[in-house]
């Protein structure tokens, strides 16, 4: 199992991933930076041995943009184990299909902001 200690490997990985985002992640980050409505998001945020695509610390909510690879092989089981570990750290994980981000990055970003606001306000 992972720990919450800072891992040089994960911090290096997160830094590299911030510099080379996938298309859906890049589109979503552009929208979140422009329209976060007071909510602050981080991208490629390390949690133990894992790295979340997006994280809102105020809401303790992480978002994962899942491409088609997440539907293949044992990836679903690995994602479930990963989400379980992250949940034990007190972080809610929301998975968003990359196809939905590509179809409507503005709408997805707005939904993420609304969700985080709701969590902070105790409504979700």
Protein model, in words:
By secondary structure, this protein is an alpha+beta fold. Helix content is 49%, strand content 20%. It has five helices and four strands; from the N terminus they run ααβββαβαα. It has a four-stranded mixed β-sheet, sandwiched between helices. A hairpin with a 2-residue loop joins strand 1 (42-47) and strand 2. Helix 2 crosses helix 5 (105-120). It is globular, with a radius of gyration of 14 Å. 28% of the residues are buried. Residues 1-5 have low confidence and may be disordered.
The radius of gyration is 14 Å
Low confidence ranges: 1-5
Distance between the termini: 29 Å
Mean pLDDT: 82
Number of helices: 5
- Content of β-strand: 15-25%
Which strand order does the major sheet show? 1-2-3-4
Structural class: alpha+beta
Number of strands: 4
Main sheet makeup: 4 strands, mixed
State the order of secondary-structure elements, H for helix, E for strand.
HHEEEHEHH
Helix content: 40-55%
Query: Can you tell me the overall shape?
Result: globular
């Amino acid at each position: 199992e992972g720990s919450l200690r800072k891992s040089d490997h994960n911090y290096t990985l997160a830094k590299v991933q911030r510099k080379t985002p996938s298309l859906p992640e890049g589109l979503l980050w552009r929208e979140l930076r422009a329209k976060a409505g007071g909510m602050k998001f981080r991208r490629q945020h390390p949690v133990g041995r894992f790295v979340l695509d997006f994280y809102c610390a105020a809401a303790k909510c992480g978002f994962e943009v899942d491409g088609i690879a997440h539907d293949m092989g044992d990836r679903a089981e690995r994602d479930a184990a990963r989400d379980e570990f992250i949940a034990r750290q007190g972080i809610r994980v929301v998975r968003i299909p990359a196809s939905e981000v590509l179809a409507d990055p503005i709408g997805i970003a707005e939904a993420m902001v609304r969700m985080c606001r709701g969590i902070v306000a105790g409504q979700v």
